[in-house]
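Pinned message: reference record for Translation initiation factor eIF2 assembly protein
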Amino acid sequence: MTENFKSFSDVPVTRRQIENCSFSNWYPFFKDYTPKAEIIKPIPEKFVQYLEQDGISLPTEQHTSSFYTGPIEKNEENEYSDWEEDEEDLNVQDEDSSDEEDKESQTPKLDPVIDFPEFHNRLKSVLEKFGAVTPKLNWSAPQDATWILPNNSMKCTEVNELYLILNASNYIMHDLQYAFDDCSDSNDTKEKPTYELILRKWFDINPALEFRVFVKENQVVGVSQRDLNYYDYLKPLGDTFKDLIDEFVEDTVIPKFPDDSFVLDIYIPRPFDKIFLIDINPFAKKTDPLMFSWNELMTKEKNEEDDYELRLVLKNNTGRFACKEHSENQVPDDVVQASLDPNSIRELAEKWKELLAMQDKEETSH
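Predicted structure (tokens):
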């Protein structure tokens, strides 16, 4: 039972393989199968610094109204409506003086309008052309940061939404700082990659019809449903999906993609006669195996007669709803709102101090 076992450390990947999965390196070969996209490469170094800086700083454009840069007003709909007016005046003088000292000691935040205006205008131009876009860097999309937008998706219709979701994403930060960490030859060079921003034209996707295809040594070794919820109509379509996947991988991807092991993210919309290529990922531990394990995928031996498994969720799983996907990256809504307005940050800090004081008082009284 254990003679074919391979530990997780035996999923080798090289820097070249990671670079081959960078969007601009594969997109030209599969443009006919991929949603429309505009690649901005290279992106300004100031924009990289902007994404890496602490906090979120939105553009200070005059004559441009935006939901995200307007003041947050107290009303019955937001978290600040039940705060008493006199609470705002607590220690105001002390807070103001300390705020001034903090501002002087802090490094000024980068402002898109000032620090990279041409790039900022380019983003606005692409948004005007496409209407709505979904962003990503070389390898990753900010799927973990959809909580910060009102639509709870990666759909961006104005430039401030692009800045918000990119700034809030750990996946984006991974691309910037840790893209080659797991490479067997990561120590051979310290050269940074050329970063790129991809703005893909938004179109609605049925998550039930997204799949992840694992290809090892030019052979499909497994396919997993991406959205891990139960859809009763998927199982009868299994053979149709596999026929489409086999043809697409063998006739379209393998002849053009330089590596023999890779992971595809695909979309098969109705009437199930065409595949859209959403992304190409490295065949590596950093890529989520979803309904498989990497041990399963690595121990799958190459055999032309051995069919692979298309894994689907075959029954409802109430446990899936106990924890929302990417919830480990989310924060309370009042923190998000406060981050957009300096005055609200102060109010939130004051409220927090009061709650801590009340808690201490209750603990000492017992």
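Pinned by admin. Summary line: Residues 1-14+204-320 form one domain.
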